[in-house]
Design a protein that fits this description.
By secondary structure, the protein is an alpha+beta fold. The chain is built from nine helices and eleven strands. Strands 1, 2, 3, 4, 5, 6 and 7 form a seven-stranded mixed sheet that branches. A four-stranded antiparallel sheet has the order 9-10-8-11. A hairpin with a 6-residue loop joins strand 9 and strand 10. Bound molecules: (3R)-3-hydroxy-3-methyl-5-(phosphonooxy)pentanoic acid (PMV).
Length: 318
């Protein structure tokens, strides 16, 4: 039996992080330049049903049955087996490889879950649909992050730009004009679970103040959806700046992120903001196509440990 590989892209949030946890909209896009892959192949000479999972990036090499019930990768395997209704699979190996930076707000955990579900279900002859894969990845995200909004698993499972409201059907975005983006890693690990818990604590202490901030972020996201559908890039840039100011008011920014954002704006970006949980991880800048190289250089000079450029293509027929 040949090797079957399940793949999934990284992701980046353009607008609406944190507010999305409280029912406001957010916008996210897949980032295809980075990806997670799960190679699934038969294991020879091991007892039937043995599933060995290897993920060198996190120093994991174990039999799934020996991993705790709430282990995220083992959970992705178990939930996939339940979804395809196979309790006694042939013995097999799952090898995970990923170029998505870990704990940097680019969806590495959701991408690994999606890659496992895709690869394993296809290997077993019952390829799961995107909605099924999305549901499994969401269950695993709960183990990672406690109370995730679900945006990561959606954008990664569907591999499309999305407008997302928690617990509502996902909406694929219409993009009028292709846009160019530069993503830069601050080098600080983003503790999403902690920033989300911290924002919740503050919200519970001062609900009206935080509700107003979340609503303002939701309104920026709505206007950004319109700007994307009209191809109004200057407006989109201004909205990124507005969103960043609101994230600073939520206290999820950091000096390093703000230095990178300033460097990108000074080098000609139309706008820039942190992306994801914040207090580290990545920032993203909207680049006029002829300024992309300048912006990348300015971000490296300002201390970015890694940059990725990505293009969001115009929707078909837009
Ligand atoms: O750090 P990331 O990219 O996983 O993003 C977290 C986004 C939050 O809105 C802060 C949390 C969530 O579950 O949506």
């Amino acid at each position: 039996m040949p090797v079957i590989s399940g793949k999934a892209p990284g992701k980046i949030i353009l607008f609406g992080e944190h507010a999305v946890v409280y029912g406001h909209p957010a916008i996210a896009i897949p980032v295809n330049k980075v990806k997670a892959t799960a190679h699934v192949f038969p294991s020879i000479g091991t007892p039937p049903g043995a599933i060995r999972i290897q993920a060198p990036d996190i120093e994991l090499d174990a039999d799934v049955t020996n991993l705790p019930q709430d282990h995220p990768l083992a959970s992705a395997v178990r939930l996939t087996l339940a979804a395809v209704e196979i309790s006694q699979p042939p013995s097999l190996n799952i090898q995970i490889a990923s170029s998505i930076p870990l704990a940097a707000g680019m969806g590495s955990s959701a991408a690994i879950s999606v890659a496992i579900c895709r690869g394993l279900s296809a290997f077993l002859g019952h390829p799961l649909t995107n909605p099924q894969i999305n549901q499994i990845a969401f269950e695993v995200e709960k183990i990672h992050h406690g109370t995730p909004s679900g945006i990561d698993n959606h954008v990664i499972a569907y591999e499309q730009p999305i407008y997302f409201i928690k617990d509502e059907p996902v909406e694929l975005l219409t993009i009028k004009t292709s846009t160019h983006w530069v993503i830069a890693d601050s080098g600080e690990k983003t503790p999403t679970r902690e920033t989300v818990a911290d924002v919740r604590k503050r919200y519970l202490a001062e609900p009206q103040h935080y509700q107003a901030l979340f609503e303002a972020i939701g309104s920026v996201t709505e206007r950004a959806r319109l700007a994307l559908s009209e191809g109004d890039l200057p407006a989109l840039g201004i909205l990124m700046k507005e969103n960043q100011a609101l994230l600073e008011a939520l206290d999820v920014s950091s000096t390093r992120l703000e230095n990178l954002i300033h460097a990108a704006n000074t080098a000609g970006a139309l706008g820039a903001k942190l992306s994801g949980g914040g207090r580290g991880g990545n920032m993203i800048a909207l680049a006029p196509p002829d300024q992309t190289d300048n912006i990348v250089q300015a971000l490296k000079d300002a201390g970015a440990v890694h940059t990725i450029t990505t293009r969001l293509n115009q929707s078909e027929g837009a």
